[in-house]
Write a structure and sequence with these properties.
The complex is a heterodimer.
Chain A: H1 11-37, H2 45-53, H3 57-85, H4 92-114
Helix pairs in contact in A: 1-3, 3-4
Chain B: H1 3-34, H2 41-48, H3 53-80, H4 85-110
Classes of the chains: A mainly alpha, B mainly alpha.
């Protein structure tokens, strides 16, 4: 028997898992993000010093990952709202694929503007 | 936990998601636009202080995300860890308060 039960090896199961993991990652990141933004108080010198630190390649990479996770969580969330509140459609895998494509697209756009 | 509480949390989770979806879309667009040529505090403040809609939007964003994140964290802890329901709820309340406090500090800083 495979480690992953057969019923779980399905695109919509992966969509569920990614929604949870992206949500968790965003929840951990959010307080840090808000704390950093509060450095803008006054003339913003403290925030500028932090923004200099974010110029490192690894930090930029983390930013792109966070953008992808945010886009994925939003698009995946719209997929869930559609399942719960709209009439059932047989294209659930397509919706999941659209959510993934939207997230990757947002990540590429952000990356291209970042570098 | 009472069924009524769970029902309200379910409804609040969906309602906050419906508020958040367009705000996240605006946030993604703003980030992709603003990151061009690098970020600076002056550039960010000139944008957020240009119109009152920005701090208002971020204020709504903070309230919605504090609710949404707290309920989501609670669900993950309850369903995927051995922690007690009361522990999960306590963590959720703490998360909600933390985001509200840090969030409104940040909104004040950029307003």
């Amino acid at each position: 028997m495979s480690i992953l039960a057969a019923h779980r090896n399905h695109p919509t199961y992966w969509a569920f898992l990614l929604h949870r993991l992206s949500g968790l990652a965003l929840a951990v990141f959010l307080p840090v993000h808000l704390y950093v933004l509060s450095m803008a108080i006054g003339d913003g010198a403290q925030l500028d010093a932090f923004l200099d630190w974010t110029q490192q390649p690894l930090v930029k990479l983390a930013e792109v990952v966070l953008v992808v996770l945010l886009a994925l969580h939003m698009a995946g969330g719209l997929r869930l709202l559609a399942i719960e509140f709209l009439p059932w459609r047989d294209s659930q895998k397509t919706f999941a694929a659209c959510a993934g494509a939207f997230a990757i697209g947002a990540g590429i756009l952000y990356f291209l503007n970042l570098v | 936990m009472s069924g009524r509480l769970e029902l309200w949390l379910f409804v609040l989770q969906r309602m906050s998601a419906m508020v958040l979806a367009p705000l996240v879309l605006v946030h993604l667009g703003t980030m992709i636009y603003a990151v061009q040529g690098g970020l600076s505090a002056a550039e960010m403040l000139s944008r957020t202080q240009s119109q009152v809609i920005w701090p208002v939007m971020y204020g709504i964003f903070i309230v919605a995300v504090a609710i949404h994140g707290a309920i989501g964290l609670r669900a993950i802890i309850r369903e995927m860890t051995p922690l007690l329901d009361t522990t999960a709820s306590a963590i959720a309340v703490l998360f909600c308060l933390l985001v509200l406090i840090l969030g409104f500090n940040a909104v004040e800083a950029i307003a």
